[in-house]
Automatic annotation (TrEMBL):
Protein name stated in the entry: Glucosamine (UDP-N-acetyl)-2-epimerase/N-acetylmannosamine kinase
UniProt-listed Pfam families: Epimerase_2, ROK
GO BP terms, alphabetized: UDP-N-acetylglucosamine metabolic process
Occurrences of domain UDP-N-acetylglucosamine 2-epimerase (ranges): 38-375
Top-rank taxon: Eukaryota
Organism the protein comes from: Suricata suricatta (Meerkat)
Lineage: Eukaryota, Metazoa, Chordata, Craniata, Vertebrata
Gene giving rise to this polypeptide: GNE
Active site: 517
Length: 661
């Protein structure tokens, strides 16, 4: 079996230390297990997995039908700074025997825990290749130092966001050994559909609890400021008691300070309070459903700012533990959570809201990318790491085939006749376009939009395009902030007070932007057309619906007479059509003169099928009617083929790339 210089299966050791890292590693482990012709999997379990006080979470690994090759008791109890150091030392003492026995080709290590640092140190010193998951991220505590230390020890890197990728490159890691895959847990999150989620809610919170009417609380100690984090946890519990909603409280992790946090829980009577359910562990499949249907999540867990965004659930992030992470719109930061009132006010602001779903940390296709990356590893290559010191290469974003994965948007254009969906690249290239007749009823139309977008998103993966979001161009009045069509043009029936953002965001787990087609045309010119680089310009859309038929024209009975037919009639010598074009062009010219006098733009761009027929008339009117000071302003015809689609795409590309750069 020849695989990039390897003539045998790749022996992969996955080491998991706690419930949190297993939720990220499990999807990879399942993928490896599904391809026994390429991989051999060894599972090593250590850390808090094996401690009763933290739920004996190794059992969930067994329930997932993985054979645990080795169990290592590495935790020194005490839950203080010294105990953490001693736990690292104990792991370093025990791991060499295990690694000598297993002899893996590569070890997969996740994240930023002190246990993971011991794993990476042992593997590096024993000349075992290391694949590090979630490197390059920034949170805001000692975890950053541990995460970056593991990065320096690791030979290969799987990161979740483009910012993390850039951080790794800035840290001089080899570009060719960095994979931007997304978070593996998102593969499970975005495919999790459990119609019976209410039974899960009732099991953990009680029979009388409704969806969106409860809170999930998960707070960990901050090891660099334990005293303050204990106080903040006490204030959080006081605020939750005052807020008076059913709350699922998960026990903290095993970091220094966790013992004191548990004492606070018992001091407040959390385990016996009628509004609280205190648990050590919830299986990840069930935890997904609990946070997806919660009214709010509160605490300082990375889960709140990473995974929960996939569902648009409101999150209150307390303190500094996650302050450096990229977040979606759903996260409200309370950095100085030093009073109960601040936390209570945040609860009142966030509870019960629904935000657009966010895919900052993944698109649901991480595991296939990671498996392909693993298969590409050549064991004949030298083990010694290479560092890429500045200057950094220009083309640095590489997928598993070392080909730039194209940042793209899904663009939707709702026209009077056709409904169009396109995959649009960052450079304005329409990679693929889909066109269907626009249905007459709301139900048929919204279902067709969803169907076309789902098909396009699936096709984008095959085309090596990473979809960042969805932009929609539609006629009529639009509320862009809420993503709602207020009043449509007469060409689109049953299209008033329509919320486009919510169904698309819920289905695709992507952020969605909506705007009027005229605004979208201007946005397209600014990003891709003749308005690029200009401080101000005006775009005018030209079109008509006059019903003109003359001898020589052939129009199917079911086709509305459009601007194209007007042009055809004029070319065939229809005097009425020619007069209409001349009259409309003159009126347009007077409108342009008024615009020049009022706002003095640098450029006027005429867009639409009639633009080239109006341009000379408009310029004549300007010469005759405009003030001399504005007669030098240029009037041009747009050279964009699909301004509505390109403008819809630009809403996505401008916003999302600004967030991740």
């Amino acid at each position: 079996m020849e695989k990039n210089g390897n003539n045998r299966k790749l022996r992969v050791c996955v080491a998991t230390c706690n419930r949190a890292d297993y939720s990220k590693l499990a999807p990879i482990m399942f993928g490896i297990k599904m391809e026994p012709e390429f991989f051999e999997l060894d599972v090593v379990v250590l850390g808090s997995h094996l401690i009763d006080d933290y739920g004996n979470t190794y059992r969930m690994i067994e329930q997932d039908d993985f054979d645990i090759n080795t169990r290592l008791h590495t935790i020194v109890r005490g839950e203080d700074e010294a105990a953490m150091v001693e736990s690292v030392g104990l792991a370093l003492v025990k791991l060499p025997d295990v690694l000598n026995r297993l002899k893996p080709d590569i070890m997969i290590v996740h994240g930023d825990r002190f246990d993971a640092l011991a794993l990476a140190t042992s593997a590096a010193l024993m000349n075992i290749r290391i694949l590090h998951i979630e490197g390059g991220e920034v949170s805001g505590t000692i975890d950053d130092s541990i995460r970056h230390a593991i990065t320096k020890l690791a030979h290969y890197h799987v990161c979740c966001t483009r910012s993390a990728e850039q951080h790794l490159i800035s840290m001089c890691e080899d570009h060719d050994r960095i994979l931007l895959a997304g978070c593996p847990s998102y593969d499970k999150l975005l495919s999790a559909k459990n119609k019976d989620y209410m039974s899960i809610i009732r099991m953990w919170l009680g029979d009388d609890v409704k969806s969106k009417d409860y809170i999930v609380a998960l707070q960990h100690p901050v090891t660099t400021d334990i005293k303050h984090s204990i106080k903040m946890f006490e204030l959080t519990l006081d605020a939750l008691i005052s807020f008076n909603k059913r709350t699922l409280v998960l026990f903290p992790n095993i970091d220094a300070g966790s013992k004191e946090m548990v004492r606070v829980m018992r001091k407040k009577g959390v385990e016996h309070h009628p509004n609280f359910r205190a648990v050590k562990h919830v299986p990840f499949d069930q935890f997904i459903q609990l946070v997806a249907h919660a009214g709010c999540m509160i605490g300082n867990s990375s889960c709140g700012v990473r995974e929960v965004g996939a569902f648009g659930t409101p999150v209150i992030n307390l303190g500094t533990r996650q302050i450096g992470r990229e977040t979606g719109e759903n996260v409200l930061h309370v950095r100085d959570a030093d009073t109960q009132d601040k936390i209570l006010q945040a609860l009142h602001l966030q509870f019960g809201k629904q935000y657009p779903c966010s895919k900052i940390y993944g698109d649901g296709n991480a595991v296939p990318r990671i498996l392909k990356f693993l298969k590409s590893i050549d064991l004949q290559e030298p083990l010694q790491k290479k560092f890429c010191f500045p200057p950094v290469k220009e083309n640095i974003s590489q997928d598993i085939d070392h080909i730039l994965e194209t940042l793209s948007a899904l663009a939707v254009d709702l026209g009077g006749t056709n409904l169009r969906v396109a995959i649009v690249s960052m450079k304005g290239e329409i990679v693929k376009k889909y066109t269907q007749f626009n249905p007459e009823t709301y139900e048929e139309r919204i279902n067709l939009i969803l169907q076309m977008c789902v098909e396009a998103a699936a096709e984008a993966v095959k085309l090596n395009c990473r979809i960042l979001g969805v932009g929609i161009s539609t006629g009529g009045r639009v509320n862009p902030r809420e993503g709602i069509v207020l009043h449509s043009t007469k060409l689109i029936q049953e299209w008033n007070s329509v919320d486009l953002r919510t169904p698309l965001s819920d289905t695709l787990h992507l952020p969605v932007w909506v705007d009027n087609d005229g605004n979208c045309a201007a946005l397209a010119e600014r990003k891709f057309g003749q308005g690029k680089g200009l401080e101000n310009f005006v775009t005018l859309i030209t079109g008509t619906e006059d019903l003109l038929l003359v001898e020589g024209m052939s129009v199917p009975k079911d086709e509305a007479v459009s601007a194209a037919h007007l042009i055809q009639a004029a070319k065939l010598g229809n005097v009425k059509a020619q007069n209409i074009l001349r009259t409309a062009g003159t009126a347009l010219g007077l409108g342009v003169v008024n615009i020049l006098h009022t706002i003095n733009p640098s450029l006027v761009i005429l867009s639409g099928v009639l633009a080239s027929h109006y341009i000379h008339i408009v310029k004549d009117v300007i010469r005759q009617q405009a003030l001399s000071s504005v007669q030098d302003v240029d009037v041009v015809v747009s050279d964009l083929v699909d301004p509505a689609l390109l403008g819809a795409a630009s809403m996505v590309l401008d916003y999302t790339t600004r967030r991740i750069c």
